[in-house]
Write a structure and sequence with these properties.
This protein is mainly β. Helix content is 8%, strand content 44%. Strands 15, 17, 18, 19, 20, 22, 27, 28, 29 and 31 form a ten-stranded mixed beta sheet that branches. The protein has a seven-stranded antiparallel beta sheet with strand order 16-21-30-23-24-25-26, with no helix packed on it. It has a five-stranded antiparallel beta sheet with strand order 4-7-12-9-10. The radius of gyration is 23 Å and the shape is elongated. The N terminus is likely disordered.
Length: 435
C-alpha cells in the first residue's frame, strides 16, 4: 500500500474542493448506471468539502435554500463517518440540483442531537412535487446521537432535481444528500417479479419461482447450528388454498436429507437460479408464528454465494424475529470485514404487540449505496457504505436472490421449550419485487 503525505492529502482536498457541485452534477448524466459504477453526486451542508471515512469527498452546500447552517455540538454515534453529520441546515425549505433527465436514487442524511424530544421536529419531504417521506421524526426513529436516513427513488424529466421540506412541527434539518443515477429512463418500472401463492391447498410453491434448501445447512450461505432439518414435503411447505403459502415448523423425529436425524422439521425456499435482481424494493406480506425458539425470516443472499462463499457474497435480512422477543423486528446486513471475517450490523423496531398477531408488510428498499428496511412502510434500519466504513466492506451492488424460512433454535436464537406451540406456521400472502 502506498503512503500519502499529509501535505499531499491537503493539496488533493483543495483540488477536489475546486470541483464545483455543478460540475459534479453534470457528471451524473455522463455515465450510464451500471451497479457499483453508477454516477454519484455527494453534497454536504458544510461550507467546505467534507471527506468521509471511505475518503469520498462531499461537495460544499450550494443547492439548499432556507434556514441556516449550524454546527453540531457532539459527534453522531453508530457511524464510521461522523464528519457527515457535524453540520446541518436547520429550517431548510428546498434543494435544487442540476442532474439531467433520468431516474435517481436519493439518500438524505440527518441526525438529532442528544436529548432531542420525539415530535419536536417533524416534517415531510417532496421530490419533484411528489411526497416521498411523510412525518419524518428522527428523534423518534432513532435513539440519541444516532443517524437517520431518508431513501427514495425519483424520476427527473426537466434536468433539475427539486426537493421540498415541509414542516409539521419545529424546523426541518438535514446534514447531507447523496444522489445516484439509477437508470436513464424516467418511466416507472413497477412490479418486476411476484408470487401471489394462489392455487389448491397442499400444492407446493411454483418450481419456476422457488427452489428448496434441504437438510441441516453446512453449505455456503446458510446454517446457524439450527435444530431443524429442512424438507420439501407439503407438511412443511404448501399452499393453504386461501391465497397464502404456509411454511410450517414441526416437532417430530425425522430422518431427512443424507440420513441426518433431527427432532424438528421446517422448510426454507429460495429464488436462487430462478430469479435474482440488483436494486429495487423487495416486499412480502407475512403473518409470523410465535413461540420460544421459533425464528421466521425473509432475507436475501448474493446469487454468487456458491462461487465465492459467504460472507463475501453479502446478505441482507429484510426481517428476522426471534420469538424469545416477539415485539422486536430486526433488519440486518452481513458482509466481510477485516481479513474477510464476517461482520453483522443490526437494528430493530419495537412493536406494541406481538408481530404474530396480524399480517405485516416487511420490505427493503435497495438502491446503489443504501439499504433500508421497513415495516408497514415505516423505516427502521438503514445501511450505507459511509456509515459502515472501510472495515466493513459494502458488498451489495450485485445480484441477490430471496429466501423465506422458519428456523428452530440456532445461534442467536433460543431452543424451543415444552410450551412452544407446534406446528408453528408462517403464512406468506405475497412476495413482490419492484424497481
Amino acid at each position: 500500500m502506498a503512503l500519502t503525505s499529509t501535505r499531499a492529502l491537503r493539496r488533493r482536498g483543495a483540488q477536489l474542493g475546486a470541483l464545483t457541485a455543478c460540475a459534479a452534477a453534470t457528471a451524473l448524466t455522463a455515465l450510464a448506471p451500471a451497479g457499483a459504477t453508477a454516477a454519484t453526486l455527494r453534497l454536504s451542508t458544510s461550507q467546505h468539502p467534507v471527506r468521509d471515512a471511505l475518503r469520498k469527498t462531499w461537495a460544499p452546500d450550494r443547492f439548499t435554500f432556507g434556514g441556516r447552517l449550524e454546527r453540531r455540538t457532539g459527534d453522531v454515534e453508530s457511524t464510521a463517518s461522523p464528519q457527515l453529520y457535524r453540520t446541518h441546515r436547520v429550517g431548510i425549505r428546498s434543494a435544487s440540483v442540476p442532474v439531467g433527465a433520468a431516474t435517481y436514487a436519493v439518500t438524505i442524511y440527518l441526525a438529532e442531537d442528544r436529548g432531542a424530544l420525539p415530535g419536536a421536529r417533524v416534517f415531510d419531504v417532496l421530490a419533484e412535487g411528489v411526497p416521498v417521506a411523510t412525518g419524518v421524526d428522527s428523534a423518534a426513529a432513532t435513539t440519541d446521537g444516532k443517524p437517520d436516513h431518508i431513501v427514495f427513488t425519483t424520476p427527473v424529466t426537466d434536468g433539475r432535481l427539486t426537493l421540498r421540506f415541509v414542516a409539521r412541527s419545529g424546523e426541518p434539518q438535514i446534514s447531507a444528500i447523496k444522489i445516484t443515477t439509477m437508470r436513464r429512463s424516467t418511466t416507472p418500472v413497477g412490479v418486476r417479479w411476484r408470487d401471489e401463492f394462489d392455487g389448491p391447498a397442499g400444492h407446493g410453491p411454483s418450481s419456476a419461482r422457488w427452489a428448496f434448501d434441504r437438510g441441516v445447512g453446512g453449505s455456503p450461505g446458510w446454517g446457524n447450528d439450527e435444530l431443524e432439518t429442512y424438507t420439501d414435503r407439503p407438511e412443511n411447505v404448501a399452499l393453504d388454498g386461501n391465497g397464502s403459502l404456509a411454511i410450517t415448523a414441526r416437532r417430530e423425529h425425522f430422518r431427512g436429507h443424507r440420513g441426518v436425524v433431527r427432532d424438528y422439521t421446517s422448510a426454507r425456499i429460495k429464488t436462487q437460479k430462478r430469479y435474482w435482481f440488483t436494486y429495487g424494493e423487495a416486499a412480502a406480506r407475512i403473518r409470523v408464528p410465535e413461540g420460544e425458539g421459533i425464528w421466521p425470516a425473509f432475507w436475501a443472499v448474493g446469487e454468487n454465494v456458491y462461487d465465492i462463499g459467504w460472507p463475501a457474497s453479502g446478505e441482507f435480512d429484510i426481517f428476522e424475529i426471534l420469538e424469545s422477543d416477539p415485539l422486536s423486528v430486526w433488519g440486518s446486513v452481513h458482509g466481510p470485514g477485516r481479513k474477510d471475517r464476517p461482520y453483522a450490523a443490526s437494528r430493530r423496531i419495537r412493536l406494541g404487540q406481538s408481530a404474530a398477531s396480524d399480517f405485516h408488510v416487511y420490505s427493503a428498499l435497495w438502491v446503489p449505496g443504501a439499504l433500508q428496511m421497513r415495516l408497514d412502510g415505516v423505516r427502521y434500519a438503514t445501511y450505507t457504505p459511509e456509515d459502515l466504513g472501510p472495515r466493513r466492506r459494502w458488498v451489495y451492488d450485485h445480484p441477490f436472490h430471496l429466501i423465506l424460512n422458519v428456523a428452530v433454535g440456532g445461534e442467536g436464537s433460543t431452543p424451543p421449550t415444552a410450551a412452544t406451540p407446534f406446528p408453528a406456521t408462517m403464512l406468506v400472502d405475497w412476495v413482490r419485487v419492484s424497481k
